[in-house]
Structures are given as C-alpha cells and as structure tokens.
Write a structure and sequence with these properties.
Layout: E1 6-7, E2 12-13, H1 17-31, H2 49-68, H3 88-103, E3 113-114, E4 121-122, H4 124-145, H5 154-172, H6 187-194
Antiparallel strand pairs: 1-2, 3-4
Helix pairs in contact: 1-3, 1-4, 2-3, 2-4, 4-5, 5-6
Length: 203
C-alpha cells in the first residue's frame, strides 16, 4: 500500500497504486473508443471490442465480490455476448468503482485476500496486482483494436510483469492466457509476450 491515488471516474481511492493506474488506463481507453468501433475484432480472437469491455467489467466486479461477499456480475464474463444496454462505459464504470471500493478496505498487512481466480486467495499486493493486470491488459486490447496509443506505461508494465510472473502460469491451464511468446523488447513487449499477446497485432 503506497500513497493513495484517486481512480478517475470513480471518486474513490484504493491506496494500491498499480490498481489505480490500471483502472485509469481501462476507463480512459474505453471512454475514447470511437463511435462505430464496438464491433471491431480484438487481440482476444473470439471477442469484439464490446465483448472485451463486458468481460473486463465483469472481472472487476468479480474481484469486488470476492472481497465483500456482494453480488458478482449477472452475466458470464467468460462468455460475453457484447449486447450492452447503453454506453459500454456506463456498464464499466460502476463495476470498476465497486472494485476500487472493495480494495480500499484491504490493508497491506492482511495475511491474504480472497480473489476470484486460482488459488482464490493471495497476499494483498499480489491480489491487487491481479485485478490490475486484468484491467490493464484488456485496456491494451481495446486500445490496439481501436487505434489508440498503448495505455501500458513503462512503470505500469514493469509492475504488472512482476505480478504476472507470480500468478499467470496456473491460469494458462484454464485458458486465461495463451502460451508465452519468445522475443526481446522493452518492458511493454516483455509483458505482452509473457501473456501470449503479440505487441504488433492488427485486425
């Protein structure tokens, strides 16, 4: 837990810098999606932009529900249909806000915190990083699909890669991440390669 930051669009402070930065990246990227771009293909091969946003929103609410015991998403984040009532940002923002509010209650000295992914409990910093990884990587997916600059700053990429190396290998068995890609590059490239994403992906 470090100096608190306000997560733009939520009015909340989590105190977890990596998560705050990832939430800001996701929210900002989704708000900048051009009209008519919601059906474009994405690096998530089976999903379009709207489906990725729906999935990312559901995942953030699932992280909140794991901590609070409150309700999770009323749809399956792993089978998003891309049918969103209203603007996709209007779906995303309250779910990110719920995640931010939940993580604001978690202290750095807690022994562990429940999370919605295996092993279902992690040290607090790693758990917050897991939520951040999910948000930031899907922000990159949406940005890449819609012609936006990458939201993965060098500092964000370094922090996320550290988390990824602690949690991703077991998740590959469930199809959450593709096999890692070999190759050299900067911090963003290293993160994307580790997550099985091609930094040069195009539709």
């Amino acid at each position: 837990m470090t100096t608190p930051n306000s997560t733009p669009g939520t009015g909340l402070t989590t105190g977890w810098d990596l998560l705050d930065a990832a939430h800001a990246a996701l929210l900002g990227t989704v708000r900048r999606v051009p009209a008519g771009a919601w059906t474009r293909p994405t690096p998530c091969a089976e999903w379009n932009v709207a489906q990725v946003v729906q999935h990312a929103a559901g995942d953030q609410l699932a992280f909140a529900a794991a901590i609070t015991g409150g309700p999770g998403p009323d749809f399956n984040p792993f089978a998003p249909d891309g049918v969103i009532d209203g603007a996709p940002a209007d779906l995303l923002e309250p779910m990110v806000a719920a995640c931010a509010a939940a993580w604001a209650t978690v202290g750095a000295d807690a022994e562990s915190v429940p999370v919605p992914v295996p092993p279902h409990a992690l040290p607090p910093a790693v758990g917050a990083g897991a939520a951040a990884l999910d948000a930031a990587v899907h922000a990159w997916d949406v940005a890449r699909a819609t012609g936006q600059p990458s939201p993965l700053t060098p500092g964000l990429a370094v922090g996320l890669l550290d988390v990824a190396r602690q949690i991703v290998e077991p998740l590959r068995r469930y199809g959450a991440y593709a096999p890692a890609i070999e190759g050299a590059g900067d911090d963003e490239t290293a993160l994307l390669h580790y997550l099985g994403r091609d930094p040069h992906w195009t539709a």
